[in-house]
Amino acid sequence: LAMGPRQNNSIFYEIRTYDIKPAKMKEFLEMVNKHLHLRTAHSELVGFWYTELGAMNKVFHIWKYDNFAHRTAVRQAIANDKDWQGKLTSVILPLIEKQHNEVAYLVPWCELGKPPKEGGMYEWVTFQMKPGGPALWGEAFRAAINAHINTGYTRLIGVFHTEYGLLNTVHVLWWNESPDQRAAGRHRAHEDARVVAAVRDSVRFLESQQNALLIPLQCSPLK
Question: Rounded to an integer, what distance in angstroms lies between the CA atom of residue 2 and that of residue 211?
């Protein structure tokens, strides 16, 4: 089972995580909502969220690129975009404490999805798997994801496997109507023998897991 770049195209996703100064989050979000169109004029934004639970004062945004040459061209273009640099980049950089980026591919058995409606909440789950890659844990991981999908309480948006950044990392993006709907569904899933069996098999390969509840920005394509 291939989960890395062994896919039918060269499309990849850059996942950016920013730690925002606690007193500056409101200002940061306002500026991004106001001016992000200057950045999306250059390349496709998948989604932009801020954290509500699981991590504080963080934002996540995901950008889609056709290949690495495409990303290089976009980065050169935005570096020369005076509106982007002057109206947003120069303003928000002092509000950011730390930046982190990863390059990831969608796993071949997953297409990027959309929620059935706007609103609701997103859950970003990061799994750090044991070294060895998908050849070791890919099938068990896929079975665990499918077991949760089959319960019907949650909707899968995307599964991303890192190529640059911390390797053997898988990020899973879910959508639920509300935190309470998600909680109720999780309780049902924990009592589902299919889910229990699949999770028990996959955790043999798991080093750590971290969950965050995400709220989309007004400017985010995924809302």
Answer: 24
- Residues 196 and 141 reside in one and the same domain: yes
Distance from C-alpha of 97 to C-alpha of 118, rounded to nearest angstrom = 31
The predicted-structure confidence for 9-29, as pLDDT tens digits, reads as follows 799 999 999 999 999 999 999
Domain match, 115 and 212 both = yes
Sequential DSSP letters for 93-113: GGGEEEEEEEEEEE-TT----
Sign of CA dihedral 10, 47, 43, 58: negative
pTM: 0.92
State both tokens at 128.
Answer: 């750090």
Handedness of CA 22, 54, 15, 132 (dihedral sign): positive
**Of the candidates 58, 39, 174, 167, the residue with the CA atom closest to the CA atom of residue 103:** 167
Contact yes or no for 96/16 (Cβ under 8 A)? no
Q: Give the three-class secondary structure for 162.
A: strand
Residue-number span of the structural domain to which 125 is assigned: 106-216
191-207 pLDDT, tens digit per residue, is 999 999 999 999 999 99
